[in-house]
Write the structure tokens for this entry.
Amino acid sequence: MRLLQNYRGNSLTDLEPYRRMLAVALEEARLGFDEGGVPVGAALFTLDGNLLSRGRNRRVQQGDPSIHGETDAFRRAGRQKSYRNLVMVTTLAPCWYCSGLVRQFNIGTLVVGESRTFSGGIDWLRQSGVNVIDLDSQECRELMEAFIAARPDVWNEDIGETGSEGAREQGSDR
Ligand SMILES: [Zn+2]
């Protein structure tokens, strides 16, 4: 899709393909919210908009702290020859763990639903040459805010703010 490859600015028209990708990740995030989990969803697409996989944070659901939205989508895509021309879409800016995944596999483009709630590693990714597109989605932000209001305990535990459990001091489960 020409618009994707030529993306340089921030006009609504240029962003429309990315918004469609984000809608898939947001669907996953909402499923996670309904399951009582951390509502972060993600998906992997080709540059021309074909969906490879989708996933969501299942830390609470499966008791597995390694299942973030991004890693879930990544694993479900199976082996790929190259990630340079793939797009990782996530409803919330990726934590260091998931930012590391983007770098490790040279994923060329990262689309972020929002980074106000949590900015994660997006500055580092930009500096590393990743094409980071922050859609600053109100829907994504409202979902995170609803989650934080409904489950402050889980949120604070995830970002390491309880301070009482040694295993959590590194925080953040985005
Ligand atoms: Zn993460």
User: Anything to note?
Assistant: The beta strands are 41-46, 51-56, 86-92, 109-114, 131-134. Confidence is low (pLDDT under 50) at residues 1-7, 164-171. Helices lie at 2-5, 12-34, 59-62, 69-76, 96-104, 122-127, 138-150, 152-158. Residues 68, 70, 94-95, 97-98, 174 surround zinc ion (CB under 6 Å).
